[in-house]
């Protein structure tokens, strides 16, 4: 695997590294690439999440924490200079295989340090039953990207305050709860963060290249999309019925539908699920102007949805849509 060396610039924002992933996926050859990066306090939320549902914007403003949206699915995470973010670019198409390959690489690397690391759930790495790394997946036309966190250390107060309600009591309880569910790598190894990064690079990569000035300029051009207000904040979709539920092995899913005369006029999906295909072409557009009836919805959708949203069963999705109708009738 090739390590991507990025000339250091401490003023770079998280958006630059997201653009770097996209640039490498679209422009570089078909080798596997890996790089590490760090940012000043930042919250990053998933492609399908509403920022006001996930981020305590007032806390972020008062504590100088930046907020960015990524193009991958998954949930909301906090990053700072005490932990390290990891990016992996591959041409493997199968989502499960890509996740498993990457996560197993990281698990084996940690075990070489004597750490009892294991893969867990959809996308997590655990140490002694506590989460130390979460990861997300993003499919581009040419390649696939897996990126995630490695919690070497972090500011726990900021982590909880930036992604939970601002009430001081809840923040306090949140910190206690988070400490019960996550762990910090520094408690398990005798390496500084810089030494750990060097070890990880040696273990995972056998080749290295450095981004050129031309690469940097093209990445900065790509970065502008990630910096735009519309991309970060989006628009709250209009709706008159809403339904949400956690679906096993898929994640949290929220559906907002605008109806007219029992016909779907618009539909929006939000949550921390992983998109693996063209959600607009295969789900959103087919459902437009479709009656809110089980048979008609089933006919409008493709036979399988797993190649659009990871692990999603068609029947579970239809039930969630119809649940919104039932909730609307009972309200």
UniProtKB/TrEMBL annotation:
Record bears the keyword Ligase: yes
Catalytic activity: L-lysyl-[lipoyl-carrier protein] + (R)-lipoate + ATP = N(6)-[(R)-lipoyl]-L-lysyl-[lipoyl-carrier protein] + AMP + diphosphate + H(+)
Pathway it works in: Protein modification; protein lipoylation via exogenous pathway; protein N(6)-(lipoyl)lysine from lipoate: step 1/2; Protein modification; protein lipoylation via exogenous pathway; protein N(6)-(lipoyl)lysine from lipoate: step 2/2
Domain BPL/LPL catalytic: start-end pairs: 28-212
Keyword Lipoprotein appears in the UniProt entry: no
Single GO cellular component term: cytoplasm
InterPro entries membership: aa-tRNA-synth_II/BPL/LPL, BPL_LPL_catalytic, Lipoate_protein_ligase_C, LipoylTrfase_LipoateP_Ligase
Keywords, sorted A to Z: ATP-binding, Ligase, Nucleotide-binding
The enzyme's E.C. designation: 6.3.1.20
One biological process term in Gene Ontology: protein lipoylation
Domain of life: Bacteria
EC class (word): ligase
Record-level Gene Ontology MF annotations: ATP binding; lipoate-protein ligase activity; lipoyltransferase activity
Protein's name according to its UniProt entry: lipoate--protein ligase
């Amino acid at each position: 695997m090739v390590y991507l060396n990025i000339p250091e610039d401490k003023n770079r924002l998280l958006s630059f590294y997201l653009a770097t992933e996209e640039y490498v996926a679209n422009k570089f050859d078909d080798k596997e690439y890996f790089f590490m990066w760090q940012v000043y306090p930042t919250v990053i939320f998933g492609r399908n999440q509403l920022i006001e549902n996930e981020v305590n914007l007032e806390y972020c403003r008062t504590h100088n924490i930046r907020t960015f949206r990524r193009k991958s699915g998954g949930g909301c995470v906090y990053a700072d200079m005490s932990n390290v973010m990891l990016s992996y670019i591959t041409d493997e198409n199968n989502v499960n295989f890509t996740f498993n390959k990457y996560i197993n690489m990281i698990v084996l690397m940690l075990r070489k340090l004597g750490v009892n690391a294991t893969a867990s759930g959809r996308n997590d790495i655990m140490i002694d039953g506590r989460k130390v790394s979460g990861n997300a997946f993003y499919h581009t036309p040419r390649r696939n990207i897996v990126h995630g966190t490695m919690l070497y250390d972090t500011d726990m107060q900021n982590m909880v305050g930036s992604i939970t309600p601002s009430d001081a009591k809840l923040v306090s309880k949140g910190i206690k709860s988070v400490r019960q569910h996550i762990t910090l790598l520094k408690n398990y190894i005798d390496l500084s963060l810089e030494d750990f990064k060097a070890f990880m690079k040696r273990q995972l990569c056998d080749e290295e290249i450095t981004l050129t000035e031309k690469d940097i300029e093209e990445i900065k051009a790509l970065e502008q999309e990630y910096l735009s207000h519309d991309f970060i904040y989006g628009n709250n979709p209009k709706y008159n019925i809403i339904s949400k539920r956690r679906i096993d092995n898929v994640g949290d899913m929220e559906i907002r539908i605008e109806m007219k005369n029992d016909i779907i006029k618009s539909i929006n999906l939000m949550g921390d699920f992983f998109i693996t295909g063209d959600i607009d072409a295969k789900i959103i557009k087919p459902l437009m102007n479709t009656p809110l009836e089980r048979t008609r919805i089933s006919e409008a959708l493709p036979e399988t949805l797993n190649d659009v949203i990871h692990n999603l069963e068609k029947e579970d999705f239809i039930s969630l849509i119809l649940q919104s109708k039932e909730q609307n009738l009972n309200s």
